[in-house]
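Handout, page 2. Input:
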Amino acid sequence: MADTFNYRIDHHGSLVRPTDLATTGVEQAVEDAVVLQRKLRSTVVTDGDYPREDFRSTVLDGVSGFRRTDETGPDGLVRWVAESLPKAGGPLVADWAEKLTELTLIAPKVSLPSPAYLAATTYQPGLGPSSPRELGEALAEIVRAEIALLVSKGVRLIQLNNPLLLDGDPGALSFEEALAVDALAVRPAERPEGVRIGVCPGWTAPAEVDRARTEQLYAGIPADRWILPFDQGTESELDLLRALPSDRDFCLGVVDATVPGLEDIDTVMERIDAAAEFKDLEDGAVSPSRGFADVATHPLLTAEEQRRKLTLVETIARYVWGNEF
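Output:
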């Protein structure tokens, strides 16, 4: 799928919130985030998830049928439960995306939680929807409609996050059900040139990759782009990439977004060289391993550490592709 729209210098979407966010206001903070991303030569821009509590909020904040509980998991995410089938009262994040198109000519990017992930983590037996599959399919239609709206507003890169797909336990949905639900949200449709719908199936590679399961994953969801972990230098990371069909784009998470220390660039390039033995790098891109603040109140790094990581991603991209962006 090699072409000029691979958005080589990517990131997952969430950025560390500024300490003065309450004072400056969200809109000004987003404008400042766009400036930062352009200075760092990113080939996409996002709103940093600044308007939201966490990476799921793009959907949960804009639909009915869910209740926020007082429980918080070890990952810092507040638990939500589905009390009825969800309904969207209007656009979810398209208005913010439209603001991005007014602030920069660079391709806007939006990250959304996948419908299967939301269904698997919010379904509660005996409450509301009759099954997690029913809940997931209702969410898939909402997400699919939002994707179409985002594209019409000028968004060119949309990433669905389902961190359970590489996990051994996909939650309330079976693995097959999760694939079917997420496929509903990204099933092929007419798309303008340069639009990419991507899926991030997890933040880290499993200890061992089940080749048959991985091939089932890629075949089950017709995404254009797969955002894969690639920051630890394990054979499993190579196996995930090796199983990817040749007609799919890939984005490699080459720096660890959870530790402040910078990766050795020669080590990263050796890993990419190993991938180049069986993949055409013209179909690739690079990014951090995950978002820097998937939960607003739990940033993984400081703003300065984040800047250094993003600068390193840009440097790695230029080592791989020169200035061909």
